[in-house]
Amino acid sequence: MKEVYPDIFLIKEKGIFGAIKPPENIYILAGSDGIIFDAGYGTKKAVRHLTKEIKRIEQLYNEKNKEFKLTRILVSHCHPDHFSGLKRIRKALGIKVFLTQKSADIIKNKKSFIKSFETDAYKDYLRIRKTISRRIINGLRNVGSRLFYYRIYGVSYIDDPEEIIDSNSEIIINGEIWQIFPSPGHAIDHISLYNKEKGILFSGDNILRSITTWLGPPNCDVKDYINSIESIRELPNLKLIFAAHGSPIENPKERITDILLHREEREKQVLEIINDNSDNGIAPKDIIKAIYPQNSRFLHQVARGWIVLTLKMLEEKHLLRRQDTKKKILFFPVKMK
Ligand SMILES: [Zn+2]
User: Residues within 5 Å of ion ligand 1 by Cβ?
Assistant: First the structure.
């Protein structure tokens, strides 16, 4: 653990398998009525590590004769690397779980959680044909990914949070006012936590220092994402961002501008490829290949998310035209009048 700001501690949780189980930041807002922001993975090992680190913080406070009491835990959004630890942490520390209604609905049980991310949205949009072999592969993949969620992430659902909080509200932490506000895009239930006096924002997965936030159906939306981070950029006195992955961001406005420019460039890139293929149109899978010429299946799978969402957004903006044929979907540019 590390004190990243007076009375704010960062506890890092190790990851494995690179992007599949990334290292995670959990923040402790320490004081007489403190909270934990984000719950991390829910494996026994992860929770043991977290509670041990919290004990160390408590000791520090005891030595300085400062009061230390954690009363609540709050999560930025309900992806497995953020909520899985809730139940075990609550039990280990005897604290209350605070959730927004949207988050609570997603993780109340296995069924609603699986519904929130397993979807035919790609298939519906890209019209991937459901051949028998494809069905078998998908079936195996689903079984595999579920095993993954329980074993590797330690996913555990929670149907009895102590309090449902308004996603647009104020919360008193250690006697200070913090603002909670919705910031959807990366996840439908994503919230941010902000303190205007300090200029500190806990951004969850929305703004990361060096990596691009993952975007993909069904619960992501590029337009929402852009709106969310644009309004974060406008926050009065924004000075410092603590993200769920990676180091603190000391130049928040520049970083957000960079992310917005990156999204704009990606949008242009997709449009250019469609313009270059205006005669015969282009299928989504060929757009993916044009952007990522490397023959990497993993890369294509990961990138598919933002490309599909960008196509959707461009279609909504009437900047491209989609032609559905029985066999495939083709995209054409919209002719400028
Ligand atoms: Zn996430």
Answer: 79, 205
User: What predicted TM-score, i.e. pTM, was given to this entire model?
Assistant: 0.90
Instruction: Say how many Å lie between the CA of residue 132 and the centre of ligand 1.
Output: 32
What's the 213 CA to ligand 1 centre distance in angstroms? 8
Output the six-digit token pair for 151.
Answer: 């074993």
pLDDT of residue 300: 85
CA-nearest of 192, 246, 230 to 23 is 246
Max Cα–Cα distance, the chain, nearest Å = 74
In this prediction, residue 123 carries a pLDDT of 63
Q: DSSP of 150-163, one letter per residue?
A: HHTS-----S--SE
> In Å, how far are 73, 173, 241, 287 from 199, measured between CA atoms?
21, 15, 8, 41
Structural domains in the chain, sorted by start: 2-114+154-250 (3.60.15.10), 265-333 (1.10.10.10)
Average pLDDT over residues 174-199: 97
Asked whether 187 and 82 are in contact (CB, 8 A), the reply is: no
